[in-house]
């Protein structure tokens, strides 16, 4: 039986001007699971996340959140339900870490509902969970790439949304902080039931943390399913143009990709055959 979905995407076409990025895409994001989008650069993963957060208007099709078209939701209502950390976000360099993280509480603020004890608690949990509490007074322009990335993640976590979308959240982090970040996201999912949507380039991290793995290529979903189904040498060659051996991780029991070299080259130049979603 299929898992209940939190987000349903139907016949979604996204474009930049006349250039189609995603073409009639259909995808279901399961409720309370970790879904990882993977694929080569430029395949539309980041644009899809922006569309889910209604930051990129579709050319056609629709995105449903809990059965409601997101186009019909108010801006703050949507922001209280879906949080997004996009690639390369920006903020004034003289802003402090605490001021940045406080921005995550904006959807919960109003003239009649100013800053509250709940906001403070959310702020502290987010900074503590990402390990930036000791940086709270630092200007973000003085931070290292990894410190800054953790501060941005803290801002999204402070938003306390039921759906969290993270676009390459571990991109600027060292190995230890990559694991810290993804373990934190996993705890939010397992302990609090948050629905998580991640874009990851590291296929082995994707296979380790995903409940559902989605391969996107040439603007379409090529295939999706559990990591055991998705981590196949033929599929990896088709989508990533890489010859690989897939073994079982002896510690975590998840599939592990060992890249051997480029495939024939045809996979990156030829539109894929849709294998089943």
From TrEMBL:
SUPFAM superfamilies cross-referenced by the UniProt entry: P-loop containing nucleoside triphosphate hydrolases (SSF52540)
Residues in ABC transporter domain copies: 7-243
What membrane topology was assigned to this protein in its record?
Answer: Peripheral membrane protein
Q: Which GO terms describe its molecular function?
A: ATP binding; ATP hydrolysis activity
* Compartments it resides in: Cell membrane
Instruction: Please give the InterPro entries that the UniProt record associates with this protein.
Output: AAA+_ATPase, ABC_transporter-like_ATP-bd, ABC_transporter-like_CS, P-loop_NTPase, Siderophore_ABC-ATPase
Q: Name one GO cellular component term.
A: plasma membrane
For this entry, list what GO says about its biological process. Answer: iron ion transport
* A Pfam family the protein falls into: ABC_tran
Keyword terms, alphabetized? ATP-binding, Cell membrane, Ion transport, Iron, Iron transport, Membrane, Nucleotide-binding, Transport
Query: Has keyword Translocase?
Result: no
Record-stated family: Belongs to the ABC transporter superfamily.
- Can you say what this protein is called? ABC transporter ATP-binding protein
Q: Which organism is it from?
A: Devosia oryzisoli
